């Protein structure tokens, strides 16, 4: 009898399961999933979910650009932000933009810095106030008609096989299952710094440093280098000379492992601090709640060790931003980096992350207060710090303090392709590039330990010297067996040290645009994101860089041999220009050599012409330049003093002028060294068609 009841129950369950695919969600038996789904309550809600074509998780600068791109390409979009801040680090204090080489910044990412430039009365601007960055990121959303879903964070991803069907969100401020939202989409993008959606979707990822042997690298893993290092002789113990007294706050008891050893430790986070020196816009720096001077004992010993260092720039990278503001970053042995206090962050739950973020805020505000008030700080330093305060007109909803911790690195996907040191150095060049990077392979310190009885920082790496290199599309997508409809342009697939070169805000925006276009292509072709036609994607990026059908600007670089003719003695320089190289004459060369840049003008019209001039030693005070437009020629003189370089870049676009250019190759720009009293450079010429 019992067997008959069990069999009948199993039959009823099976029948209900079959019918569940045809019944409306409210009529499906509890605990059953639709065909291909999982046995979860969330799966039953898919039909009730908000349905969009593309769901983007994370309203960082990358998320904004991705959302704008997908919407402009005709798709419905949901842009979700787990916090209340728009723009991530771009509007979170990182106004001193990490560029590397402007040649690598293309499409909407470059357009963003052009919009910022227009705001400040320039062609491009790479240093800016947080509120200005936020204003122009919001402008993209307004133009596309996108409303951000703020304060909602992912708690699960519902998959059918390797496909994400929907994600479930909870309210970040007041978690309550009754207010959870479900978003269903055809393709998802994870644009967060943490990679939470990627993790919820079951995609493989790495945290920490690979050993050098894992990917045949040389500067991954443990690295005890001189950069941002404590000088010799600083005692790490609470009572100097007595190990039994215990270690100072911030010093780890971990042993120094052999060079190149991998681990799960994460490079230091910090805040990029926006202060102001304008008394009318200033909130004084006061002692933060939870301030503990013990946290700065090692700093006090460092200050005592080097009494000759009495400026703020000795302890901070104190970069000036427009309107008397700053972007302050870590410098030297003890600064804004909270070394070794973030190891749990990548995989921590939301509550633990909030605690880590708050600890970083308290530490950083305490550091500023320490410099302004602690008697162990030289009076010159204290007086300098007291001239600065929090700006009243920044972060007005969060107490004039950035709501965005600089999460330099958290999870990194292990995807279809892993970018490595060999890619950065050009030893391995991918064919499926959908963006470029050019920044130094960079890691902030990872731990503070005792080495030979002294406090030392370990993990800092700053090695560059290479030109722009392509980033593989394969590094933006998971393995197909893991997930077929997720792209990850921020926590992309790269080793720790390669990620250190790629992880720049402008690059994230470039990769986000590429990812969004790929998402649209996958939807239109009804295929997985792994099977997108890369050649078509690359062609789309080139033909329509602003996703609006406008005629692309024309760049002629000195390495475009078919469009550049060189006369005289010019030498290539591999570092410091726009693109892979630039040309220069010797300081005393007055033989009248020249470089002529001839564009292929696809559409006749009025063009703004710009010439890129990298800063070099002993540049000629005047450089002769001429523009040929049709049958006319205009001679110009470029003065060295008019080439003003700002920010983390070695050159600047110089506005040559506005010219009516005919279709074809009847136009040219010529740079001459004739009669120059110093070195002359020839790098790149840009032709931008005036918009109507």
* The level-1 CATH class of the domain at 554-689: Mainly Beta
Poorly predicted residue ranges: 1-45
Percent range of helical residues: 10-25%
Describe the largest sheet: 7 strands, mixed
Q: What structural class should be given to the helix and strand makeup?
A: alpha+beta
Give me the Rg, rounded: 28 Å
The CATH topology of the domain at 554-689 comes to: Jelly Rolls
The CATH superfamily of the domain at 554-689 is: Galactose-binding domain-like
Query: Quick one: overall form?
Result: globular
Characterise this structure.
It is a single chain. The chain has 692 residues and is α+β, with helices and mostly antiparallel strands. Among the domains are: 1-32; 279-391, no CATH class; 554-689, Galactose-binding domain-like (Jelly Rolls, Sandwich). Helix content is 21%, strand content 24%. The chain contains twelve helices and 33 strands. The strands form eleven sheets. Strands 1, 2, 3, 4, 5, 6 and 21 form a seven-stranded mixed beta sheet that branches. The protein has a five-stranded antiparallel beta sheet with strand order 23-26-31-28-29, with no helix packed on it. The protein has a four-stranded antiparallel beta sheet with strand order 22-33-27-30, with no helix packed on it. The protein is globular. The model is unreliable at 1-45 (pLDDT under 50).
